[in-house]
Design a protein that fits this description.
Elements lengths: L2 H8 L8 H10 L1 H8 L6 E5 L7 H8 L4 E6 L5 H12 L1 H4 L3 E5 H9 L1
Parallel strand pairs: 1-2, 2-3
Protein name: Methyltransferase-like protein
Organism: Nostoc punctiforme (strain ATCC 29133 / PCC 73102)
GO molecular function, one term: methyltransferase activity
Length: 113
């Protein structure tokens, strides 16, 4: 993973990230977390229960050119989920093609049934 890319993404020039999500960085240490997992730009990453998209705002730009991000949420019609999906749709130059696969809870139930 390009640790420098993630650090620059988090440096504040990242206007595609919400202020609330940027404020959480100091507690979540995203660059260090992604470095620990060995993320590379050509990987396919599945993000379960995306919530407001805190990690998606970091992962999608990193994976946009060579990798793929697949996301799923539990409440596919909730207001935060719909706002998140709209954000992805109107910023393809930043987020690339993020694949959405529906309700994570239902997928998990089917997988273990």
């Amino acid at each position: 993973m390009s640790y420098l890319f993630v650090r620059s993404l988090l440096a504040g020039a990242s206007c595609h990230r919400s202020l609330a999500n940027r404020d959480r960085d100091k507690y979540r240490h995203p660059a260090e977390t992604l470095k620990f997992f060995g993320l590379r730009p050509n990987m396919t990453v599945v993000e379960l229960w995306t919530g407001s998209g805190w990690y998606t705002e970091i992962l999608a730009p990193f994976l946009a050119s060579k990798g793929q991000l697949i996301v799923t949420n539990s409440a596919t019609s909730s207001k935060p989920t719909l706002a998140f999906q709209q954000k992805l749709a109107v910023n393809p130059e930043v987020f690339g093609k993020v694949k959405r696969i529906g309700n994570a809870s239902l997928l998990l139930e089917r997988a273990i049934a």
